[in-house]
Description:
five-stranded antiparallel sheet, 26% helix, 5 strands
Amino acid sequence: MKHSQPSHKSYQVVIDSGIPIKYIQDYFRLTSEEVTPHHYRGSNWELILMPQSLEPKGRKVSLYIPRTQMRFIGEKTEVDQVVTAYRLEFLSAGG
């Protein structure tokens, strides 16, 4: 049996984002390579965007807040830098 060494892409950060996916896509098109509209790649990291269902099954809602699961995969240092930059770009004080 052959044992494989851990990949440099084994580190992951998952964010459940309320930012509309269009804004996320626009940002990552400028900062990385777009593989598909839901897959972006940079130096030693990747991002997979997974939009969540618009409406819960079987239920009508009067207000919908967009949700996108963002899965960053890659080398820890690179992923942490990309996540920090993303968070700073979309930082909001509310109000």
